[in-house]
Known about the structure:
Number of helices of chain B: 0
Structural class of chain A: mainly beta
Largest sheet of chain A: 6 strands, mixed
Number of helices of chain A: 0
Largest interface: A-B, 25 and 25 residues
Helix content of chain B: under 10%
Order of helices and strands of chain B: EEEEEEEEEEE
Distance between the termini of chain A: 40 Å
Structural class of chain B: mainly beta
Radius of gyration of chain B: 13 Å
Order of helices and strands of chain A: EEEEEEEEEEE
Oligomer: heterodimer
Distance between the termini of chain B: 36 Å
Number of strands of chain A: 11
Number of strands of chain B: 11
Amino acid sequence: SQKIEQNSEALNIQEGKTATLTCNYTNYSPAYLQWYRQDPGRGPVFLLLIRENEKEKRKERLKVTFDTTLKQSLFHITASQPADSATYLCALTLYGGATNKLIFGTGTLLAVQP
Amino acid sequence: NAGVTQTPKFQVLKTGQSMTLQCAQDMNHEYMSWYRQDPGMGLRLIHYSVGAGITDQGEVPNGYNVSRSTTEDFPLRLLSAAPSQTSVYFCASRAPSGGVNEQFFGPGTRLTVL
C-alpha cells in the first residue's frame, strides 16, 4: 500500500540546536516534495519545495534533502528558536494528467524549549 | 490581497442537516481544492477544481458536493451531515493547475456533527 510516514511522536529540542524531521514514503514516485508548517488552529503554510533531481535545498535556517533511492526527505531547522514550534507536514506531488495532486503526511510536532 | 478566505470558522450541525462551507480566493488561481484534517490521518483531498466549471473527486468525496461557477469561489456542500464528517476543513488554491507551486490554505472551518 502507499504510505507517507512522519514521526508521530513530538520532537523536543533545546533552543539553538538543529531540529531534524523525517518523511518516508512507500509505493509512490513523487516528482516533487514540499514541506509545510502548521500552527494550532491555522491552515498549513508553504516552506520549501524540492524536485526529484535535487539533492538539497536551503532557505535561510531551513534545509531539505530528498533521496529518491531511500524514499526519504529530511527537514532541518538550524539554530532553532521557540518560535519554530509547530507541526511540520511533508507532501508529495504526484503527476496526474491535467493536474498534479498533493498527498500529505500526518505531520510531526516540533517543540523548541527555551 | 486577502488570500484564501473560509466561512464559517466554526459550525455545529445535527445529523441529517445540510450546509455549505464557503471558500474564496482573490489571487486568480485556477486550481482550488478542499481537504479535511483528522487526528492521525493527515490532510485528505475531498474534491478539487482546475478551473471554472471543472471539478473532480479526490480521495474522500462521498457525502460532499462541489461546484465552481467562478474562478474566485469554490463552495463545499454537505447534503446530509453525518458524525463521521466531524473534522476540520481546509480550502486551498494554487496557480496554475498543472504546475508545481505552493498551495495557499485558508484558515479552516471546524465542523462538529452531533
